[in-house]
Each structure stands twice: as C-alpha cells, then as structure tokens.
C-alpha cells in the first residue's frame, strides 16, 4: 500500500512577469515539511508549476498524493489539457507552442510516479495550509528583493522577457 501524502502549493509574482516565488507544504502522517524558493524573473504560472514540482521532488517513493492548489491553470493543465498537448507535440489546439512546456514536462514525469488526486481550493479564503504557502512564497520574494540589487533584478527581467519571445 502506498503511503498517503498531502501537498499544498502556491506560487506568486510581484509583477507578472517579475520577481517570483513558490512554496509548498508536504504532509505525511503527523509531519509537515515547508519548502520555498524564489526566482529573480518569472511568471505567476511558472511559480505555481514550480511549487507542485518541488512538492513531488520531496517524495522518495511512490505515494498516494493529494495535491491542493489555488491555481486552476495548474489543476486543469495537469488533469485535462496535458493529454492533448502531448498528442499534438506540445502544441495548443490553435497550433501555438505550449507555454511553460519545460515545467509541464517535468511535472508530468514526477506526478506520473505516483497516484495523484488534484484538488482546487479558493485562494486567500482562510485555508490554513494555502495561507501558509502564500506566506512562505511572499517571504521568499521579500528575501530575494532584500538580497538582490535592483539592477540585477531589472537585468534578470529583461533577460527573461527576451527569452519569452
């Protein structure tokens, strides 16, 4: 029988794109691990994906996983849209490249090692663990901004924007 694990996720940006962060809380039995990180230039959607990726990376064996996210983009993407994207060679229905394919591909592989149920919950609605993830991500951005000169953040944003063209 696979161990039961619950993962709560959140990602955010200050500016979109802009400095961003992800956070997750991984719960197993009576233990909880809090993970977070920040990126100088990114998008909110990339951080939502990164939060789930990092939660799965924390698991060291196949599990029964319940993922809770306030991102419908993440939940819909991994449960519904990804099948069509794969079938179309990572293209959307209109033929354009799937945004964030690198992260979708990574999440697909990681989640594929587990039995996963994806749950959407309303963000900023007082849910204890969703609020905790939001706090962790906000703090990660604050620390990034405090420890990174504004000129470096600006340069990172310009480089990110160029890479998205």
Care to describe what's here?
It is a single chain. The protein is globular, with a radius of gyration of 16 Å. The longest helix is centred in the last third of the chain and has 20 residues, at 128-147. Helix 1 runs parallel beside helix 3. The protein has helices spanning 44-57, 72-87, 101-111, 128-147, 150-163; strands at 4-13, 18-28, 31-42, 64-69, 115-120. A hairpin with a 4-residue loop joins strand 1 (4-13) and strand 2 (18-28). It contains five helices and five strands, in the order E-E-E-H-E-H-H-E-H-H. The chain has one domain (4-163): Nucleotidyltransferase, domain 5 (2-Layer Sandwich). It is an alpha/beta fold and 165 residues long.
List keywords for this structure.
alpha/beta, single chain, 165 residues, Nucleotidyltransferase, domain 5, five-stranded mixed β-sheet, 5 helices
Q: What spatial order of strands do you see in the largest sheet?
A: 3-2-1-4-5
CATH superfamily: Ribonuclease H-like superfamily/Ribonuclease H
CATH topology title: Nucleotidyltransferase, domain 5
**Radius of gyration, Cα only, in angstroms?**
16 Å
Kindly state the percentage of residues in helix. 40-55%
CATH class (first level) name: Alpha Beta
CATH architecture: 2-Layer Sandwich
Count of separate DSSP helical elements: 5
Categorize the overall geometry. Answer: globular
Query: What is the structural class?
Result: alpha/beta
């Amino acid at each position: 029988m696979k161990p039961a694990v619950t993962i709560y996720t959140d990602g955010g940006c200050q500016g979109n794109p802009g400095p961003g962060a992800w956070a997750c809380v991984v719960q197993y039995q009576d233990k909880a691990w809090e993970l977070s990180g920040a990126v100088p230039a990114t998008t909110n959607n990339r951080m939502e994906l990164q939060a789930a990726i990092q939660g799965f990376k924390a698991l060291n064996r196949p599990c029964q996983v319940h993922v809770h996210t306030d991102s419908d983009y993440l939940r819909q993407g991994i449960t519904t849209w990804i099948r069509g994207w794969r079938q179309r060679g990572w293209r959307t229905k209109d033929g354009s490249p799937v945004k964030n394919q690198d992260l979708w591909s990574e999440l697909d592989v990681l989640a594929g090692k587990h039995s996963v149920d994806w749950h959407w919950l309303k963000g900023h609605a007082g849910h204890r663990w969703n609020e905790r993830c939001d706090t962790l991500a906000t703090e990660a951005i604050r620390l990034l901004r405090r420890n990174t000169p504004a000129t470096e953040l600006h340069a990172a944003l310009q480089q990110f924007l160029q890479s998205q063209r």
